[in-house]
Amino acid sequence: MKNKFNSACNYFFSNFWLKKIFPTIVLFQIIACSNEGLFFEDAYVIENVGIIDPIDGLELNMSVVIKENKILDIFKTREMVLSPKNKVYKGTNKFIIPGLWDSHIHFAFEKDLATSMPNLFLYHGITSLRDTGGEFDFVNKFKQEAISNPKTKSRVKIAGPLIDGKFNVYDGSNIYFPKLSIQNIDNNQLERNVRLLIDKKVDFLKAYEMLSPAQFKMLSNLAKENNLKLTGHVPLSMSVIEASNLGLNSMEHLRNLELSMTKMSEKLFQERKNLLLNKSSIKGSELRSLIHSKQRMKSINDLDSIKINNVIDALIKNDVWQIPTLILYKNFANKTFKNPDYLQFLNLLPEERKEVWIKKINAIDNVINKDVVEYTVWSKKMVDFMHDRGISFMAGTDTPIGFLIPGLSLHQEIQELYESGLSELEAIQTATINPAKYFNLENSLGRIKSGFIADLIILDKNPLESISNTKSIHAVIKEGHLMNRSYLDSLMK
Ligand SMILES: [Zn+2]
User: Fold this and answer.
1) Is residue 478 included in any domain, yes or no?
2) Does this model's pTM top 0.90?
3) How many A from CA of 130 to the centre of ligand 1?
């Protein structure tokens, strides 16, 4: 079929009788034939580019036609004669990948930065976002703005607030724990709160660490009834296998995974149950930190290969995805943000935010905690192991937590995933087709195929040769709207 493109007029006449019979077929409206070649009306062509589809991989010397918000057609450059009337962008020596997702962000973590975040994401080619926790009205504003401006704002999927238990962690008591979660004293309150969020149309739900098993079960049932994915941190009152069997669809930060993988898991579980009674009535955030500090490294240092495999088997059986946020851990462990060259990244922030971040960074000492480093090394090994076993990953960062720059940090996360054992193409999948699948959008988003939404990045260098080339952004296309380098740079002024 594509060979007929050799001559635009061949193509026209081969369809002539077809057109007579079906005069309204789409082709007739969009393609005009002349002696000079094929003309795509109200469209543009990226000519002779290397396309990198996350499933099919690289194909060189291709031309991509974009009309309105979609990829209209893709063909081999040499098999098509184009009319000079077409609007053409030369793609020679460039590469196209789908627009990227950051699948773990928090608009509400630093509200004074939030309004600058959309441009930072776009500038870095992040065309879709998954907000994993914040007050509904606040994060919904960003979602609605994106729906109203699909060509200039990254799409936003929201969980609304984290659903936490009686001892709520992100209660808004200080800058480290802004109000990202809602407290639920009991099952009734949880049901009311969650039904309200579902009525307001959240895109998924997020379970948090202080939920009781009964609360988690209710949350999971509500999610299932309403066809919503349930992500989260495994509640400290439960094992990973229990939460996974009850319907946890994805895990953020590998959180509390190790507690179910250690030889001491039963003993630690008893200890947690007592601690969770919270007899001295400390704050939720303090209680959680206390439990982590008592149990995390103990677990990592006494792992049990049978338990590890049992947990992984359950995650596979229940198709539980992982968003390991490796760059978050690495940044914390190595205190990378204290390096003088990190300043260059901070220049991307608005001046007054940059000053606030520098003050906060300067207040942190230079001491490297070897436990945190060890945990980070373990996380990467666990990602490698899970990947070998066939578990699905999404790239997410937690930006702006941990001084991670919105947008830039997603490229760093892709690099981390690559270094943990994923191939270059698999690392790209974690930020393209995988999140599309997670939200059941895999037939319209996250690939370079005819009919798919044209969220794309044109790169100067091939990311399959070096994964860091995802940063060599020449242009970003959001729903067909092409933003070139100088436009993207202007977003940062
Ligand atoms: Zn988070």
Assistant:
1) no
2) yes
3) 10
